[in-house]
Design goal:
This protein has 151 residues and is α+β, with helices and mostly antiparallel strands. The chain has one domain: Small protein B (Small Protein B, Chain: A), CATH 2.40.280. Helices cover 32% and strands 38% of the residues. The strands form two sheets. Strands 1-8-9-2-7-5-4 form a seven-stranded antiparallel sheet. A two-stranded antiparallel sheet has the order 3-6. A hairpin with a 2-residue loop joins strand 4 and strand 5. The longest helix has 24 residues. The mean pLDDT is 87.
């Protein structure tokens, strides 16, 4: 992702899911949506992707209406198509059909002037896994603190 500007990240996804694979996809946007996204008016929380009729559709993504867009504005919650190769869509479809897997957008960024979405093939974490992650993070923080105090 060098040479790109990160617009939004889905931090909650990293807490709730184990990310097994990440795929970069383009997103089909209309008119004022691009200006809204470039302005950072996007929310990834609660969004997910699904494979329908050989297309990958992103649902629940909220792009706020462009403030200067008047009647040309769009529906903020409309489903948006992800632009992927057929092989990538097939790979996603096979994984999602397995129990426990879902497609979660991890981040939205600009790459050479184009809006890109990083979609993760994720498996939901159990409560035990979340606790383990918190314990590991706390232990790392304490170790870092001890090293700093030692110097």
């Amino acid at each position: 992702m060098s040479g790109s500007k990160k617009i939004a990240t889905n931090r909650k996804a990293l807490r709730d899911y184990l990310v097994e694979d990440r795929i970069e996809a383009g997103i089909e946007l209309r008119g004022t949506e691009v200006k809204s996204v470039k302005g950072g008016h996007i929310n990834l929380t609660g969004s997910y992707a699904s494979v329908v009729n050989g297309e990958c559709i992103l649902n629940g993504l909220n792009i706020s209406p462009y403030e200067y867009g008047n009647r040309f504005n769009h529906d903020p919650e409309r489903p948006r198509r992800l632009l992927l190769h057929a092989a990538e869509i097939g790979k996603m479809r096979v994984k999602v059909e397995q129990k426990g897997y879902s497609l979660i957008p991890m981040s939205v960024y600009l790459k050479r002037g184009l809006v890109k979405v990083e979609v993760g093939i994720c498996r939901g974490k159990k409560l035990v896994d979340k606790r383990e992650t918190l314990k590991r993070r706390t232990a790392d923080r304490e170790a870092e603190r001890a090293i700093r105090n030692r110097k």
